[in-house]
Amino acid sequence: MRLSRIKTWFLAGIILLALFGPGVLIQAQELRTRQEHLQKQIFNPGLNDKLYAYLEETADPEPRILTNYPLAYLPGLSGAQVEFWFRDYNQYFGLISQPEIGYLLVPSTADDAILQDIERRLVISEFQLIFSDDNFIPYRLIRIIRQ
């Protein structure tokens, strides 16, 4: 009698798991997907969309982007940000010389000397403008051309 009761509970547990288990797993995955989608919209959604589209197009597995924009909080970009506030020209010059840094995500609030150097390098094709975003704080994504 005791053995048949254990079998009954075991069978009932398996039936319940088969009925409700997939629903719980699917719901958890949907929640994770929704959370990631919402997290991609923090700060400046338009800028984020352009950045994700460009990085997907180029398929750069480990982009290193010199910026003060909080990339570390965006899904898939936590290791992309090299934090720099674009205030010190000498530090800027040293950072853009590092071969692992491939991009600048430059705010319009950058130091004038830095902005002038960026404009000069764009004209002589040492830098390439990928896109601009003119929302709350305008940013430009610029690729460093390495010879």
Structure, briefly:
The chain is of the alpha/beta class and 147 residues long. It has helices spanning 2-39, 45-58, 89-96, 112-123, and strands at residues 65-67, 81-83, 103-107, 127-133, 139-144.
Strand and helix layout:
Elements (H helix, E strand, L loop, with lengths): L1 H38 L5 H14 L6 E3 L13 E3 L5 H8 L6 E5 L4 H12 L3 E7 L5 E6 L3
Parallel strand pairs: 1-2, 1-3
Antiparallel strand pairs: 3-5, 4-5
Structure description:
The model has no long low-confidence stretch (mean pLDDT 88). This protein has a five-stranded mixed β-sheet with strand order 2-1-3-5-4, with helices on both faces. The protein is of the alpha/beta class and 147 residues long. The longest helix is centred in the N-terminal third of the chain and has 38 residues. It contains four helices and five strands. The chain folds into two domains: 39 residues; 100 residues, D-Maltodextrin-Binding Protein, domain 2 (3-Layer(aba) Sandwich).
Any key phrases for this structure?
single chain; 147 residues; 49% helix; elongated; 16% strand; 2 domains; alpha/beta; D-Maltodextrin-Binding Protein, domain 2; five-stranded mixed beta sheet
Shape: elongated
Number of strands: 5
Order of helices and strands: HHEEHEHEE
Structural class assignment: alpha/beta
The spatial strand order of the largest sheet comes to: 2-1-3-5-4
CATH topology of the largest domain: D-Maltodextrin-Binding Protein, domain 2
